[in-house]
Amino acid sequence: MKTPIIGLAAVVAAATLALAGCSAAGPGSSDGSSSSGGATNAAAKRACVILPDTESSPRWESGDRPALEKALKDAGFDADIQNAQNDTEKYATIADQQLSKGCGVMLLVDLNGAGAQVLTKAKGQGIPVIAYDRPIAGADYYVSFDNTKVGELEGQLIVDGLKKEGKDPKTASVVYMGGDPTDGNAKFFHDGADKVMSAAGIKPAKEPKGTWDADKSGTNFEQAYTALNGKVDAVWVANDANAASVIAVLDKNGKKVPVSGQDASIAGLQNILLGKQTGTVYKPFQLEADEAGKLAVSLLKGDKPTAPADVDGVPFFNETPILVTDADGIKKVISDGNATAAEICKGDVAAACDKAGIK
Q1: Exposed, middle or buried, 342 (CB in 10 Å: 0-12/13-18/19+)?
Q2: What DSSP string runs through 69-94?
Q3: Closest CA to 242 of 274, 273, 220, 224
Q4: What values do phi and psi take at 130, rounded to 5?
Q5: What is the pLDDT of residues 253-271, one digit of tens each?
Q6: Cα(226)–Cα(250) distance, integer angstroms
Q7: Do residues 201 and 181 make contact, with C-beta atoms less than 8 angstroms apart?
Q8: Element (H or E) spanning 142, and its range?
Q9: pLDDT per residue over 139-195, tens digit each?
Q10: Three-class SS string for 239-268?
């Protein structure tokens, strides 16, 4: 388990201290000559970052963008950070614009496979590529959480939830609601969860095609629920946004069953307090942003850091996910600065917060 974090400000401060030895002049020789890869000295000081969207998680704009920007700028480097708004064509256009200006390193969050084409172009120009949060085959480095472990924690939520209700996992009717299969992490989540659930004897009663579109996930689940005549004992769901849509369908049918999730979102934390979601897997983005910021700076300086792990031949800096199932876990998310009691304790959740001592 990683050392607990105490919020974005502390993480950024730590990253700044760790990077304090970096030259404000950036890479390249003192006479302004070009660095390796044919980039100009100005281009070699630029970190080009592409974020995927604003829908799959609020973290990209409210968390990752400012954290990465501060870490890079405090180390004396420029940060060109743009968001593709869930549009693969826009993703490609952003990349072309960034590459035309020059990049010393590219940090890419893949979007439906768009990262692979950008990686090819970047590598063709000798620019190192960091796959951020989501894997991209052939990247120089991958920075993310241990996403197989994320899935395993989700799967355990379902197994434990069924046993707590006195239901045999081997005979339980469990619906699998995965993420978008074009997202490389979705397979890790699924396979990790399935490993745990299948070991307990669970087989999916229904498994609609995965998606990160919460509305579509809700529609898919409602169709599965109807096809099963309401015989649903648990639902493995890959993230909190999809879980909220699944829970809306369950609510409509007056049903509560074990439901998993991921991201420690406000909705997910609220549903845990209301007893509608068994738990969520918490992935403090600060850990990723801090690691990626330090790695990007090292590459901009011309260093070649050694990663502690490997995924499909790509050096992997992996962070440890945290399981949240109760008030203590929710209080940790709040103390880390990734949620506030005011955001969580609204409406019918207020009474549950009072009971849990969340203020």
Answers
A1: exposed
A2: HHHHHHTT-EEEEEE-TT-HHHHHHH
A3: 220
A4: -105, 120
A5: 999 999 999 999 999 999 9
A6: 11
A7: no
A8: strand 141-145
A9: 999 999 999 999 999 999 999 999 999 999 999 999 999 999 988 899 999 999 999
A10: CHHHHHHHHHHHHHCCCCCCECCECCCHHH
Task: Spell out the residues 6+ positions from residue 246 whose beta carbon is closer than 8 angstroms to its own.
Answer: 177, 217, 218, 221, 235, 237, 259
Q: How far is CA 93 from CA 82, 127, 139, 181, in A?
A: 11, 17, 20, 23
Kindly report each contact of residues 8-12 with a partner whose C-beta sits within 8 Å and lies 24 or more positions away, as own/partner: 8/63, 8/66, 8/67, 8/286, 8/337, 9/337, 11/67, 11/286, 11/287, 11/289, 11/290, 12/67, 12/70, 12/71, 12/74, 12/286, 12/290
Handedness of CA 287, 292, 295, 296 (dihedral sign): negative
Q: Which residues of 325-334 are buried (b: 16+ CB within 10 A; e: fewer)?
A: bebebbbbbb
Lowest mean per-residue pLDDT among 50-64, 122-136, 293-307, 315-329: 50-64
**Which residues share a beta bridge with 319?**
145
Phi and psi at 30, nearest 5°, equal -65, -20
Q: Phi and psi (nearest 5°) for 238? A: -75, -25
Phi and psi, residue 49, nearest 5°: -125, 135
Tell me what the mean pLDDT of segment 244-250 comes to: 98
Q: Specify burial of residue 141 (Cβ count, 10 A radius: 0-12, 13-18, 19+).
A: buried
Residue 31 has pLDDT above 70, yes or no: no
Contacts by residues 113-116 (CB-CB < 8 Å, ≥ 24 positions apart): 113/88, 113/182, 114/84, 114/88, 115/50, 115/91
Q: Provide the pLDDT for residue 57.
A: 78
> Structure tokens of 309?
């792990």
SS3 29: coil
Residue 128, judged by CB atoms within 10 A of its CB (0-12, 13-18, 19+), counts as: buried
